[in-house]
Amino acid sequence: MAVARGKKLSRTGKEALDGYIFMSPAILGLLLFILGPILASAYFSFTKYDILDSPEWIGLANYTKLFNDPFFWLSLKITLTYAVVSVPMGLTVSLLLAMLLNQNLKGIFFIRTIYYLPVVISGVAVSLLWKWVFNPDFGLLNWFLGWFSINGPNWLYSEEWALRAVILMSLWSIGGSMLIYLAGLQGIPTELYDAAEIDGANRWRKFVNVTIPMLSPVIFFNLVMGIIGSLQIFTEGYVMTSGGPNNSTLFSVLYLYRNAFDYLQMGYASAMAWVLFIIILTFSLIVFKSSPLWVFYEAQRGKTK
Amino acid sequence: MSDLTRAHIIKHRKIGNHLSTKLVTWFSYLTLGIGGLLILAPFVWMISTSLKQKSDVYIFPPEWIPSPIMWGNYAQALTTFPFPMYTLNSMIIVVFVLIGSLLSCSFASYGFARLNAPGRDLIFIILLATMMLPAAVTMVPLYLFFNKLNWIDTFLPLIVPAWFGNAFFIFLMRQFYMGVPRDLEDSAKIDGCNAYTTWLKIMVPLTKPVLATVAVFTFIGTWNDFMGPLIYLTNEDKRTIALGLSYFQGSARSAPELHLLMAATIYSIIPCVLLFFFAQKIFVKGIVFTGVKG
């Protein structure tokens, strides 16, 4: 019996060892490229470091400097404005589109393809294309607005309109969240709609009482992804406007990038990264904490966890 | 309410519904059609601009059909900047990232899905949590790390991390592995397979669909990556296609040459657009999986 027990133990031990070996790329990756850098970033945020000389400990100086840096506050304001406007707008429009697509219409496959197409294109290509579309004098958009006798603004060349232009542009690439919604919609059992109909529900009641609750986990997913993605917007500001005009599109990550790689203030940039991290974390946590109030999970959905 | 009146109401509603269903169909087509046009218009505009002669680009109102059609713009765009070299650079990075990503994610997922080891689930949860981490936080220290290794201006910082798994893809594959019946592995074990040969001979062939999904997403993500190459690549002949394109607009050589810029942009998006059309099913399946199961 003792022999059998020993054998058993060694078998579980062997399995554990194999398990660790299998997981090792992920564990190493986690330590080397994520957790390690996070800790390093925390350390650097308390130092003055320009790469050429070794880091010099300066305590909280970076954070106090950050607190008094008007550009940092400006970049935060711009980034938050972008997120607060573009995320709900994108989520609403993509949900409406998904609902329209979730019908037995001819050619729906083709239409879906068109809507998704912008998502596979690089941020640089999208930015260059839209820069041309936004051209105040010869661009497509102002030509289009001209049909309605609207004298289009200067878009990217206008302090007032540049951020709005970037927000507007973000609507072009909502195909991703639209497809996710569509998948969610297709997973809602039709019996629920039939039951609602028998109870006398109209389209609106069905939308509010069946579609939205059943779709809430997907809305939650899209919301969290939208927040994380939008607060890290970079390419548009870098390629289209260089943060201008007059810093009106100075997004936080762009300002961070400049501090790190243009001004070589690695410590200061690290402090900025941490503040940004905490902001993103706070937003995500608020959404997570609020989820029991509005996200409805079917009991059976939990089983994969 | 008696059953009779109830049936009556439903019947009544059905008649009304028929009309409104037709209306809804028309409304849907109209909205989706207008939306589709708005999505497509910039593409058409880009193609149109790319085929114009220089003097016709800055004309208002714009002409949609260029005359004459300048096919030569594409050849010219390719030679104005070393785009073939940029393409080669992007290809090299993509190929090595693909190999590393597929191997490491598939390998690691098997451990997370099947092998019992103390702390496994905790590690998995930490891994999942890192998906929420903004890349901006690790950007500076990773740069400094790769700088210490003397890897700046090589492709290594863009390739090597891909060989160490990716939280999102591992999650995706693990879910897929969990759905594979255990009988197959059990019989493999009876046939004398250990964990490694089981993974290689049973799991890898069975999980081809999810590997295809990961491959497609990895290709598009790597091809389109801008920030990584921007930070790590300094020398002109190391540039990737996305990075090269961003310089194309700002260079003195070609700043006002919008027709060439548009031709170059089209050139840069062709691989991803083709991949999207050919692998559309794989794509849609992957997205569906992420949103609904995630």
General description of the model:
Chain A is mainly alpha-helical and 305 residues long. Chain A folds into 2 domains: 2-44, no CATH class; 61-304, MetI-like (MetI-like fold, Orthogonal Bundle), CATH 1.10.3720. Chain A has 13 helices and 2 strands. In chain A, strands 1-2 form a two-stranded antiparallel sheet. The radius of gyration of chain A is 25 Å and the shape is globular. Chain B contains 15 helices and no strands. In chain B, helix 1 packs across helix 14 (258-278), helix 4 packs across helix 8 (167-178) and helix 9 (183-190) packs across helix 10 (195-206). The mean pLDDT of chain B is 85. Chains A and B meet through helix 1, helix 3, helix 4, helix 5 and helix 6 of A and helix 1, helix 4, helix 5, helix 6 and helix 8 of B.
In short:
The complex is a heterodimer of chains A (305) and B (294). Chain A has 305 residues and is an all-alpha fold.
CATH architecture of the largest domain in chain A: Orthogonal Bundle
The description of the largest β-sheet of chain A is: 2 strands, antiparallel
> Would you tell me the overall average pLDDT of chain B?
85
Largest interface: A-B, 97 and 103 residues
* CATH fold node name of the largest domain in chain B: MetI-like fold
Largest sheet: spatial strand order of chain A: 1-2
CATH class of the largest domain in chain B: Mainly Alpha
Enumerate how many helices of chain A there are, as a single number. Answer: 13
Mean pLDDT of chain A: 88
Low-confidence stretches of chain B: none
Q: Which regions of chain A have little confidence, pLDDT < 50, spanning 5+ residues? A: 1-6, 299-305
According to CATH, the homologous superfamily of the largest domain in chain A is MetI-like
Fourth-level CATH superfamily of the largest domain in chain B: MetI-like
The total beta strand count of chain A reads: 2
